[in-house]
Model the fold of this input.
Amino acid sequence: MTKAPTAPKCVIDDAVLNPKTLKDMEDIALSFFASACGRNRGAFVLDPPDGKTYSCLQLPENFAELAGATSMRDDVAITTSNDIQTQYQGGNLTASDTLHMLNFLIDNVYQSTPAVEATPYACEFNGLAKLECDKSPTKKSSILLASGEPIRSATLAGLLVPATWATGGKPLTLKEAKHFYTAKDFLEMKSAGLNTVQLEVPTAVFDPTKDENGQKMMDLLQTTLQSVDDAGLVAILNIVSTADELDAIVAAAIFCDQTEGVLAMTIPSETMLDPKSVVNNIRTVAPKLNIFLPVNQGDLSKLPAWTLNDKHLYGALESSHSGSVADVASSSSQEDRSKMFYHEAITCMARSSMEFASCFGNLPLFMSSGFDLSIDDCIASSLPGFSDYGQCDRFDETADSGFWESHRSSFAARQVFAYEQGMGWSFAAWKLYDNDKVGTMDKVEKLLSLQDVMEAGLFPKLDGPVIATKACLNPPKPDFVLGDDTLAPSMGPPPDCGNGWWNLETSQCDYWIPPTPAPTEPCPECSEASAAGSALVGAILGGAIVGGIVWKLFGNKRDDYETIPN
Done:
Protein backbone atom coordinates (compact mmCIF):
# COMPACT_ATOMS: atom_id res chain seq x y z
CA MET A 1 0.00 0.00 0.00
CA THR A 2 1.34 3.45 -0.93
CA LYS A 3 2.12 5.64 2.02
CA ALA A 4 -0.01 8.79 2.15
CA PRO A 5 2.05 11.98 1.75
CA THR A 6 2.62 13.92 4.91
CA ALA A 7 1.69 17.59 5.18
CA PRO A 8 4.56 20.09 4.90
CA LYS A 9 6.07 21.23 8.20
CA CYS A 10 7.49 24.62 9.09
CA VAL A 11 10.64 24.21 11.21
CA ILE A 12 13.77 26.14 12.13
CA ASP A 13 16.46 25.76 9.48
CA ASP A 14 19.25 24.16 11.48
CA ALA A 15 21.78 25.12 8.80
CA VAL A 16 21.13 28.72 9.87
CA LEU A 17 20.20 28.49 13.54
CA ASN A 18 21.63 25.78 15.74
CA PRO A 19 23.24 25.53 19.20
CA LYS A 20 26.50 26.95 17.80
CA THR A 21 24.98 29.95 16.00
CA LEU A 22 22.31 30.84 18.57
CA LYS A 23 24.89 32.78 20.56
CA ASP A 24 25.47 34.97 17.50
CA MET A 25 21.81 35.96 17.31
CA GLU A 26 21.69 39.51 18.62
CA ASP A 27 18.01 39.67 19.56
CA ILE A 28 15.78 36.59 19.62
CA ALA A 29 12.70 38.74 20.14
CA LEU A 30 13.40 40.86 17.07
CA SER A 31 14.36 37.91 14.88
CA PHE A 32 11.56 35.55 15.89
CA PHE A 33 8.80 37.06 17.94
CA ALA A 34 8.30 40.15 15.77
CA SER A 35 7.17 37.78 13.02
CA ALA A 36 5.61 34.89 14.95
CA CYS A 37 3.65 36.94 17.47
CA GLY A 38 1.98 39.11 14.86
CA ARG A 39 0.37 36.25 12.94
CA ASN A 40 -3.31 35.36 13.20
CA ARG A 41 -4.02 38.40 15.45
CA GLY A 42 -1.33 36.98 17.79
CA ALA A 43 -3.23 33.77 18.59
CA PHE A 44 -2.36 30.10 18.13
CA VAL A 45 -3.86 26.79 19.19
CA LEU A 46 -2.53 23.31 19.84
CA ASP A 47 -3.10 20.21 17.75
CA PRO A 48 -5.07 18.38 19.03
CA PRO A 49 -7.03 21.24 20.65
CA ASP A 50 -7.04 21.45 24.45
CA GLY A 51 -9.95 23.87 24.83
CA LYS A 52 -7.75 26.96 25.04
CA THR A 53 -6.31 29.65 22.80
CA TYR A 54 -2.77 30.87 23.39
CA SER A 55 -0.52 33.72 22.38
CA CYS A 56 3.03 34.94 22.88
CA LEU A 57 1.79 36.67 26.05
CA GLN A 58 0.18 33.51 27.40
CA LEU A 59 1.90 30.24 26.60
CA PRO A 60 0.57 26.86 27.76
CA GLU A 61 1.41 26.05 31.39
CA ASN A 62 3.40 22.99 30.27
CA PHE A 63 4.96 24.79 27.30
CA ALA A 64 8.51 23.61 28.05
CA GLU A 65 7.37 19.99 28.34
CA LEU A 66 5.32 20.18 25.13
CA ALA A 67 8.31 21.69 23.32
CA GLY A 68 10.57 18.83 24.39
CA ALA A 69 12.87 20.76 26.72
CA THR A 70 14.86 18.25 28.78
CA SER A 71 17.39 20.24 30.83
CA MET A 72 15.30 22.98 32.42
CA ARG A 73 15.23 23.42 36.21
CA ASP A 74 11.87 23.27 37.98
CA ASP A 75 12.17 26.85 39.24
CA VAL A 76 12.50 28.30 35.70
CA ALA A 77 9.15 29.55 34.43
CA ILE A 78 8.25 30.05 30.76
CA THR A 79 4.90 31.84 30.62
CA THR A 80 5.49 34.30 27.76
CA SER A 81 7.61 34.18 24.64
CA ASN A 82 9.93 36.81 26.07
CA ASP A 83 10.77 34.41 28.91
CA ILE A 84 12.50 32.20 26.36
CA GLN A 85 14.96 34.98 25.57
CA THR A 86 15.49 36.23 29.12
CA GLN A 87 15.98 32.75 30.58
CA TYR A 88 18.43 31.80 27.82
CA GLN A 89 20.38 35.02 28.29
CA GLY A 90 20.36 34.46 32.04
CA GLY A 91 21.95 31.04 31.62
CA ASN A 92 18.85 29.18 32.78
CA LEU A 93 18.08 27.55 29.43
CA THR A 94 20.45 25.54 27.27
CA ALA A 95 20.76 26.40 23.60
CA SER A 96 19.16 23.06 22.73
CA ASP A 97 16.10 23.64 24.94
CA THR A 98 15.78 27.21 23.63
CA LEU A 99 15.69 25.98 20.05
CA HIS A 100 13.13 23.31 20.95
CA MET A 101 10.86 26.02 22.34
CA LEU A 102 11.31 28.33 19.36
CA ASN A 103 10.59 25.41 17.04
CA PHE A 104 7.44 24.50 18.94
CA LEU A 105 6.22 28.08 18.78
CA ILE A 106 6.87 28.35 15.02
CA ASP A 107 5.19 25.02 14.31
CA ASN A 108 2.02 25.91 16.21
CA VAL A 109 1.80 29.40 14.73
CA TYR A 110 2.15 27.85 11.26
CA GLN A 111 -0.43 25.14 11.97
CA SER A 112 -2.83 27.82 13.23
CA THR A 113 -2.53 29.80 9.99
CA PRO A 114 -5.51 29.30 7.67
CA ALA A 115 -5.07 27.95 4.12
CA VAL A 116 -1.32 27.39 4.31
CA GLU A 117 -1.56 25.51 1.00
CA ALA A 118 -2.49 28.82 -0.68
CA THR A 119 -0.31 31.16 1.39
CA PRO A 120 3.28 31.40 0.03
CA TYR A 121 4.55 33.25 3.12
CA ALA A 122 2.86 31.18 5.86
CA CYS A 123 6.27 29.77 6.86
CA GLU A 124 8.03 33.13 6.73
CA PHE A 125 10.00 33.90 9.89
CA ASN A 126 12.70 36.31 8.66
CA GLY A 127 14.42 33.56 6.68
CA LEU A 128 15.09 31.43 9.78
CA ALA A 129 12.50 28.72 9.09
CA LYS A 130 12.18 26.26 6.23
CA LEU A 131 9.24 24.38 4.77
CA GLU A 132 9.87 20.65 4.88
CA CYS A 133 7.79 18.68 2.40
CA ASP A 134 7.18 15.05 1.61
CA LYS A 135 10.05 13.31 -0.19
CA SER A 136 7.88 11.23 -2.48
CA PRO A 137 9.27 9.60 -5.66
CA THR A 138 7.38 12.15 -7.78
CA LYS A 139 8.81 15.16 -5.95
CA LYS A 140 11.12 17.14 -8.23
CA SER A 141 14.61 17.97 -7.08
CA SER A 142 15.75 21.58 -6.88
CA ILE A 143 19.20 20.55 -8.13
CA LEU A 144 19.81 20.24 -11.87
CA LEU A 145 23.62 20.27 -11.90
CA ALA A 146 25.68 17.12 -11.45
CA SER A 147 27.94 19.01 -9.00
CA GLY A 148 25.07 19.27 -6.53
CA GLU A 149 25.34 23.07 -6.50
CA PRO A 150 22.41 25.41 -7.06
CA ILE A 151 22.40 27.39 -10.30
CA ARG A 152 24.77 30.36 -9.98
CA SER A 153 24.48 32.37 -13.13
CA ALA A 154 24.90 35.75 -14.77
CA THR A 155 22.75 36.95 -17.65
CA LEU A 156 24.53 38.04 -20.84
CA ALA A 157 22.44 41.19 -20.96
CA GLY A 158 22.42 43.07 -24.27
CA LEU A 159 24.07 40.40 -26.40
CA LEU A 160 21.19 39.21 -28.61
CA VAL A 161 18.24 41.11 -27.10
CA PRO A 162 18.57 44.88 -26.44
CA ALA A 163 19.32 45.92 -22.86
CA THR A 164 20.44 49.49 -23.37
CA TRP A 165 21.25 50.08 -19.69
CA ALA A 166 24.04 47.49 -20.08
CA THR A 167 25.35 48.68 -23.45
CA GLY A 168 25.92 52.40 -23.12
CA GLY A 169 22.39 53.59 -23.83
CA LYS A 170 21.97 52.05 -27.30
CA PRO A 171 21.49 48.52 -28.70
CA LEU A 172 24.60 46.79 -29.97
CA THR A 173 25.12 46.17 -33.65
CA LEU A 174 25.90 42.57 -34.59
CA LYS A 175 29.51 43.57 -35.14
CA GLU A 176 29.70 45.07 -31.64
CA ALA A 177 27.89 42.07 -30.15
CA LYS A 178 30.45 39.68 -31.67
CA HIS A 179 33.19 41.29 -29.59
CA PHE A 180 31.17 41.95 -26.42
CA TYR A 181 31.82 38.58 -24.77
CA THR A 182 35.06 36.68 -25.29
CA ALA A 183 36.37 33.32 -24.12
CA LYS A 184 38.22 35.18 -21.35
CA ASP A 185 34.92 36.41 -19.88
CA PHE A 186 33.57 32.89 -19.45
CA LEU A 187 36.79 31.68 -17.87
CA GLU A 188 36.53 34.60 -15.40
CA MET A 189 32.94 33.62 -14.60
CA LYS A 190 34.01 30.05 -13.90
CA SER A 191 36.89 31.26 -11.72
CA ALA A 192 34.49 33.51 -9.77
CA GLY A 193 32.34 30.50 -8.85
CA LEU A 194 29.60 30.69 -11.44
CA ASN A 195 28.44 27.48 -13.09
CA THR A 196 25.83 28.76 -15.56
CA VAL A 197 25.06 31.65 -17.91
CA GLN A 198 21.60 32.82 -18.92
CA LEU A 199 21.17 34.16 -22.43
CA GLU A 200 18.10 35.88 -23.85
CA VAL A 201 17.50 34.71 -27.41
CA PRO A 202 14.80 36.05 -29.79
CA THR A 203 12.63 33.53 -31.63
CA ALA A 204 13.86 35.08 -34.91
CA VAL A 205 17.13 33.17 -34.39
CA PHE A 206 15.22 29.92 -34.91
CA ASP A 207 13.24 31.14 -37.93
CA PRO A 208 15.76 32.93 -40.19
CA THR A 209 13.13 33.50 -42.89
CA LYS A 210 11.50 36.18 -40.70
CA ASP A 211 14.67 38.20 -39.98
CA GLU A 212 17.52 38.95 -42.36
CA ASN A 213 19.95 38.85 -39.45
CA GLY A 214 18.56 35.57 -38.12
CA GLN A 215 21.41 33.41 -39.44
CA LYS A 216 24.07 35.86 -38.23
CA MET A 217 22.51 35.79 -34.76
CA MET A 218 22.47 31.97 -34.88
CA ASP A 219 26.18 31.99 -35.71
CA LEU A 220 26.85 34.31 -32.76
CA LEU A 221 24.73 32.11 -30.49
CA GLN A 222 26.61 28.96 -31.47
CA THR A 223 30.01 30.65 -31.05
CA THR A 224 28.98 31.92 -27.62
CA LEU A 225 27.70 28.51 -26.51
CA GLN A 226 30.96 26.90 -27.59
CA SER A 227 32.92 29.33 -25.41
CA VAL A 228 30.52 28.67 -22.53
CA ASP A 229 31.07 24.93 -22.86
CA ASP A 230 34.86 25.30 -23.21
CA ALA A 231 34.93 27.20 -19.89
CA GLY A 232 33.08 24.39 -18.10
CA LEU A 233 29.81 26.32 -17.81
CA VAL A 234 26.30 25.44 -18.96
CA ALA A 235 23.65 27.70 -20.46
CA ILE A 236 19.97 28.49 -19.99
CA LEU A 237 18.36 29.95 -23.10
CA ASN A 238 15.59 32.38 -22.24
CA ILE A 239 13.46 32.51 -25.39
CA VAL A 240 12.02 35.95 -26.17
CA SER A 241 9.04 35.93 -28.51
CA THR A 242 8.22 38.83 -30.80
CA ALA A 243 4.82 37.35 -31.66
CA ASP A 244 2.77 34.20 -31.06
CA GLU A 245 5.28 31.95 -32.84
CA LEU A 246 4.71 28.40 -31.67
CA ASP A 247 6.75 26.84 -34.49
CA ALA A 248 9.79 28.99 -33.62
CA ILE A 249 9.50 28.06 -29.93
CA VAL A 250 9.39 24.36 -30.78
CA ALA A 251 12.41 24.85 -33.07
CA ALA A 252 14.23 26.51 -30.17
CA ALA A 253 13.42 23.47 -28.01
CA ILE A 254 14.89 21.13 -30.61
CA PHE A 255 18.04 23.29 -30.76
CA CYS A 256 18.38 23.27 -26.95
CA ASP A 257 17.81 19.52 -26.75
CA GLN A 258 20.48 18.79 -29.34
CA THR A 259 23.15 21.33 -28.32
CA GLU A 260 25.90 20.34 -25.93
CA GLY A 261 26.05 22.48 -22.80
CA VAL A 262 22.46 23.75 -22.81
CA LEU A 263 20.99 23.00 -19.41
CA ALA A 264 17.45 24.26 -20.03
CA MET A 265 15.25 26.66 -21.96
CA THR A 266 12.72 29.18 -20.65
CA ILE A 267 9.55 29.55 -22.70
CA PRO A 268 8.47 33.11 -23.58
CA SER A 269 6.53 35.12 -21.02
CA GLU A 270 5.30 37.89 -23.35
CA THR A 271 3.01 35.83 -25.56
CA MET A 272 -0.67 35.05 -25.92
CA LEU A 273 0.05 31.36 -26.38
CA ASP A 274 -1.26 29.02 -23.72
CA PRO A 275 1.75 27.82 -21.66
CA LYS A 276 0.28 24.33 -21.31
CA SER A 277 -0.08 24.06 -25.08
CA VAL A 278 3.48 25.32 -25.59
CA VAL A 279 4.91 22.74 -23.17
CA ASN A 280 2.84 19.93 -24.69
CA ASN A 281 4.12 20.79 -28.17
CA ILE A 282 7.71 20.86 -26.93
CA ARG A 283 7.27 17.47 -25.29
CA THR A 284 6.49 15.88 -28.66
CA VAL A 285 10.04 16.68 -29.84
CA ALA A 286 12.03 16.97 -26.58
CA PRO A 287 10.41 14.81 -23.87
CA LYS A 288 13.25 15.23 -21.35
CA LEU A 289 14.37 18.80 -21.99
CA ASN A 290 14.45 20.92 -18.83
CA ILE A 291 11.88 23.68 -19.31
CA PHE A 292 11.43 26.78 -17.17
CA LEU A 293 7.91 28.22 -16.98
CA PRO A 294 7.92 32.01 -16.29
CA VAL A 295 6.02 32.89 -13.10
CA ASN A 296 5.74 35.97 -10.88
CA GLN A 297 4.88 36.39 -7.21
CA GLY A 298 1.17 36.67 -7.95
CA ASP A 299 1.14 33.26 -9.66
CA LEU A 300 2.49 31.33 -6.68
CA SER A 301 -0.74 31.00 -4.71
CA LYS A 302 -2.55 29.47 -7.70
CA LEU A 303 -0.05 27.33 -9.58
CA PRO A 304 -1.80 25.27 -12.28
CA ALA A 305 -2.29 21.56 -11.58
CA TRP A 306 -0.93 20.54 -15.00
CA THR A 307 2.61 21.47 -13.90
CA LEU A 308 2.66 18.85 -11.14
CA ASN A 309 3.54 15.73 -13.08
CA ASP A 310 5.98 16.93 -15.74
CA LYS A 311 9.27 15.69 -14.29
CA HIS A 312 11.37 18.21 -16.21
CA LEU A 313 9.26 21.35 -15.76
CA TYR A 314 10.37 24.08 -13.35
CA GLY A 315 9.53 27.70 -12.57
CA ALA A 316 11.51 30.80 -13.61
CA LEU A 317 10.63 33.49 -11.07
CA GLU A 318 10.57 37.04 -12.40
CA SER A 319 10.79 39.61 -9.61
CA SER A 320 11.94 43.19 -9.09
CA HIS A 321 13.21 45.59 -6.42
CA SER A 322 11.50 48.46 -8.26
CA GLY A 323 8.01 47.21 -8.89
CA SER A 324 6.10 49.87 -6.95
CA VAL A 325 6.33 53.46 -5.77
CA ALA A 326 7.10 52.19 -2.25
CA ASP A 327 10.07 50.25 -3.62
CA VAL A 328 11.77 53.21 -5.31
CA ALA A 329 10.56 56.57 -3.98
CA SER A 330 12.97 58.66 -1.88
CA SER A 331 14.02 62.28 -2.03
CA SER A 332 16.62 62.70 0.73
CA SER A 333 19.78 60.99 1.89
CA GLN A 334 18.07 59.56 4.95
CA GLU A 335 15.16 58.26 2.86
CA ASP A 336 17.67 56.59 0.52
CA ARG A 337 19.26 54.83 3.48
CA SER A 338 15.94 53.80 5.03
CA LYS A 339 14.91 52.42 1.62
CA MET A 340 18.09 50.34 1.60
CA PHE A 341 17.22 49.05 5.07
CA TYR A 342 13.70 48.19 3.90
CA HIS A 343 14.91 46.13 0.95
CA GLU A 344 17.45 44.32 3.11
CA ALA A 345 14.85 43.56 5.76
CA ILE A 346 12.41 41.88 3.37
CA THR A 347 14.94 39.98 1.24
CA CYS A 348 15.18 36.85 3.39
CA MET A 349 11.43 36.38 2.96
CA ALA A 350 12.05 35.19 -0.61
CA ARG A 351 13.07 31.72 0.54
CA SER A 352 9.53 31.12 1.83
CA SER A 353 7.85 31.55 -1.56
CA MET A 354 10.45 29.36 -3.26
CA GLU A 355 9.98 26.52 -0.80
CA PHE A 356 6.20 26.95 -1.01
CA ALA A 357 6.17 26.47 -4.79
CA SER A 358 8.28 23.33 -4.47
CA CYS A 359 6.24 21.80 -1.62
CA PHE A 360 2.69 22.63 -2.68
CA GLY A 361 3.07 23.06 -6.44
CA ASN A 362 5.88 20.58 -7.11
CA LEU A 363 7.44 23.40 -9.13
CA PRO A 364 10.94 24.29 -7.87
CA LEU A 365 11.82 27.90 -8.69
CA PHE A 366 14.86 29.52 -10.25
CA MET A 367 15.33 33.28 -9.72
CA SER A 368 15.76 34.17 -13.38
CA SER A 369 15.13 37.92 -13.22
CA GLY A 370 15.36 40.52 -10.46
CA PHE A 371 18.66 39.73 -8.73
CA ASP A 372 20.86 42.83 -8.49
CA LEU A 373 21.92 45.40 -5.87
CA SER A 374 19.84 48.35 -7.07
CA ILE A 375 16.95 49.64 -4.96
CA ASP A 376 15.39 51.96 -7.54
CA ASP A 377 14.58 52.24 -11.23
CA CYS A 378 17.24 54.79 -12.13
CA ILE A 379 18.58 52.73 -15.04
CA ALA A 380 15.36 53.79 -16.79
CA SER A 381 15.65 57.49 -15.92
CA SER A 382 16.27 58.51 -19.54
CA LEU A 383 13.34 56.55 -20.93
CA PRO A 384 9.89 58.02 -21.70
CA GLY A 385 7.38 57.59 -18.91
CA PHE A 386 9.96 57.52 -16.11
CA SER A 387 8.48 58.75 -12.81
CA ASP A 388 10.88 61.05 -10.96
CA TYR A 389 10.37 60.99 -7.19
CA GLY A 390 13.86 62.31 -6.46
CA GLN A 391 15.29 58.80 -6.17
CA CYS A 392 18.17 59.33 -8.61
CA ASP A 393 19.63 62.61 -7.36
CA ARG A 394 22.19 61.41 -4.82
CA PHE A 395 23.93 58.32 -6.19
CA ASP A 396 27.32 60.04 -5.87
CA GLU A 397 26.83 60.12 -2.08
CA THR A 398 27.07 56.33 -2.01
CA ALA A 399 30.63 56.28 -3.37
CA ASP A 400 33.29 55.68 -0.70
CA SER A 401 30.54 55.31 1.91
CA GLY A 402 30.98 52.76 4.66
CA PHE A 403 27.23 52.63 5.18
CA TRP A 404 26.47 51.78 1.56
CA GLU A 405 29.32 49.31 1.24
CA SER A 406 28.20 47.43 4.35
CA HIS A 407 24.52 47.36 3.47
CA ARG A 408 25.03 46.46 -0.17
CA SER A 409 27.19 43.52 0.93
CA SER A 410 24.45 42.47 3.33
CA PHE A 411 21.83 42.86 0.59
CA ALA A 412 23.83 40.65 -1.77
CA ALA A 413 24.43 37.90 0.80
CA ARG A 414 20.77 37.84 1.87
CA GLN A 415 19.64 37.44 -1.73
CA VAL A 416 22.12 34.67 -2.46
CA PHE A 417 21.04 32.74 0.62
CA ALA A 418 17.31 33.16 -0.03
CA TYR A 419 17.43 32.26 -3.73
CA GLU A 420 19.61 29.21 -3.12
CA GLN A 421 16.84 27.71 -1.01
CA GLY A 422 15.24 27.26 -4.42
CA MET A 423 17.09 26.24 -7.57
CA GLY A 424 19.46 29.20 -7.60
CA TRP A 425 19.74 32.53 -9.38
CA SER A 426 20.95 34.57 -12.31
CA PHE A 427 22.39 38.04 -11.68
CA ALA A 428 21.10 40.81 -13.95
CA ALA A 429 24.30 41.01 -16.04
CA TRP A 430 27.88 39.80 -15.96
CA LYS A 431 29.36 43.03 -17.30
CA LEU A 432 28.68 46.37 -18.97
CA TYR A 433 29.73 47.23 -22.50
CA ASP A 434 32.90 49.33 -22.85
CA ASN A 435 33.42 49.56 -19.06
CA ASP A 436 36.97 50.66 -18.29
CA LYS A 437 36.67 51.10 -14.49
CA VAL A 438 35.50 47.70 -13.27
CA GLY A 439 34.68 47.69 -9.56
CA THR A 440 34.39 51.47 -9.20
CA MET A 441 30.76 51.95 -8.21
CA ASP A 442 30.35 55.32 -9.89
CA LYS A 443 27.06 54.76 -11.71
CA VAL A 444 23.86 52.94 -10.92
CA GLU A 445 24.18 50.46 -13.80
CA LYS A 446 27.15 48.86 -12.05
CA LEU A 447 24.85 47.63 -9.30
CA LEU A 448 23.42 45.28 -11.96
CA SER A 449 26.82 44.10 -13.18
CA LEU A 450 28.16 41.10 -11.28
CA GLN A 451 31.68 41.71 -12.51
CA ASP A 452 31.65 45.18 -10.92
CA VAL A 453 29.89 44.01 -7.76
CA MET A 454 32.41 41.20 -7.21
CA GLU A 455 35.39 43.43 -7.97
CA ALA A 456 34.09 45.96 -5.42
CA GLY A 457 34.01 43.23 -2.75
CA LEU A 458 30.22 43.37 -2.32
CA PHE A 459 29.44 39.73 -3.13
CA PRO A 460 29.91 36.63 -0.96
CA LYS A 461 32.51 34.12 -2.13
CA LEU A 462 30.99 31.26 -4.11
CA ASP A 463 33.25 28.63 -2.60
CA GLY A 464 30.97 25.73 -1.74
CA PRO A 465 27.57 24.12 -2.24
CA VAL A 466 26.09 26.03 0.72
CA ILE A 467 27.12 29.65 1.38
CA ALA A 468 25.98 32.78 3.25
CA THR A 469 24.14 30.71 5.88
CA LYS A 470 24.48 33.50 8.47
CA ALA A 471 23.18 36.24 6.15
CA CYS A 472 19.67 36.08 7.63
CA LEU A 473 20.61 35.24 11.22
CA ASN A 474 20.12 38.85 12.31
CA PRO A 475 18.10 41.75 10.90
CA PRO A 476 20.03 44.47 9.04
CA LYS A 477 21.65 47.17 11.16
CA PRO A 478 19.18 50.02 11.75
CA ASP A 479 21.79 52.75 11.30
CA PHE A 480 20.06 54.51 8.42
CA VAL A 481 19.30 57.71 10.38
CA LEU A 482 22.91 58.82 10.68
CA GLY A 483 24.52 56.72 7.96
CA ASP A 484 28.26 57.41 7.94
CA ASP A 485 27.89 60.22 10.48
CA THR A 486 28.26 59.60 14.19
CA LEU A 487 27.09 61.56 17.16
CA ALA A 488 29.87 63.67 18.70
CA PRO A 489 30.64 62.57 22.27
CA SER A 490 29.19 64.95 24.83
CA MET A 491 31.46 66.15 27.58
CA GLY A 492 30.50 65.37 31.16
CA PRO A 493 30.32 68.09 33.83
CA PRO A 494 33.69 69.16 35.31
CA PRO A 495 34.50 68.39 38.95
CA ASP A 496 33.37 70.87 41.61
CA CYS A 497 36.39 73.08 42.40
CA GLY A 498 34.66 75.21 45.05
CA ASN A 499 35.94 78.77 44.65
CA GLY A 500 38.20 77.77 41.76
CA TRP A 501 37.70 76.36 38.26
CA TRP A 502 38.55 73.23 36.33
CA ASN A 503 41.55 73.70 34.00
CA LEU A 504 40.94 71.65 30.83
CA GLU A 505 44.60 71.81 29.79
CA THR A 506 46.09 70.60 33.07
CA SER A 507 43.06 68.51 34.14
CA GLN A 508 43.10 69.93 37.67
CA CYS A 509 41.44 72.63 39.79
CA ASP A 510 43.01 76.10 39.66
CA TYR A 511 42.43 78.96 42.15
CA TRP A 512 43.13 82.70 42.34
CA ILE A 513 43.73 82.21 46.05
CA PRO A 514 44.71 78.63 46.92
CA PRO A 515 42.51 77.12 49.66
CA THR A 516 43.99 76.79 53.16
CA PRO A 517 45.16 73.21 53.66
CA ALA A 518 43.39 71.30 56.40
CA PRO A 519 45.51 70.88 59.61
CA THR A 520 46.87 67.46 60.40
CA GLU A 521 46.94 65.99 63.87
CA PRO A 522 49.37 63.31 64.99
CA CYS A 523 47.96 59.86 65.73
CA PRO A 524 47.73 59.04 69.45
CA GLU A 525 48.92 55.55 68.64
CA CYS A 526 50.49 54.83 65.27
CA SER A 527 49.52 51.21 64.93
CA GLU A 528 49.20 49.50 61.56
CA ALA A 529 45.76 49.58 60.01
CA SER A 530 44.00 46.27 60.11
CA ALA A 531 42.63 44.54 57.06
CA ALA A 532 39.14 44.97 58.44
CA GLY A 533 39.76 48.70 58.86
CA SER A 534 40.96 49.04 55.28
CA ALA A 535 37.95 47.17 54.05
CA LEU A 536 35.65 49.41 56.12
CA VAL A 537 37.30 52.53 54.69
CA GLY A 538 36.96 51.08 51.21
CA ALA A 539 33.30 50.35 51.83
CA ILE A 540 32.68 53.88 53.18
CA LEU A 541 34.48 55.45 50.21
CA GLY A 542 32.69 53.16 47.79
CA GLY A 543 29.37 53.98 49.39
CA ALA A 544 30.13 57.68 49.21
CA ILE A 545 31.01 57.45 45.52
CA VAL A 546 27.91 55.42 44.70
CA GLY A 547 25.80 57.79 46.80
CA GLY A 548 27.27 60.74 44.96
CA ILE A 549 26.50 59.21 41.57
CA VAL A 550 22.96 58.39 42.65
CA TRP A 551 22.47 61.95 43.99
CA LYS A 552 23.94 63.40 40.78
CA LEU A 553 21.73 61.31 38.51
CA PHE A 554 18.51 61.23 40.44
CA GLY A 555 18.70 64.07 43.00
CA ASN A 556 16.96 64.10 46.37
CA LYS A 557 13.55 62.54 45.74
CA ARG A 558 12.34 62.75 49.36
CA ASP A 559 10.90 66.26 49.13
CA ASP A 560 8.59 65.76 52.12
CA TYR A 561 11.55 65.47 54.52
CA GLU A 562 13.94 68.19 55.62
CA THR A 563 17.59 67.66 54.82
CA ILE A 564 19.61 66.96 57.98
CA PRO A 565 22.01 69.89 58.55
CA ASN A 566 25.68 69.11 58.03
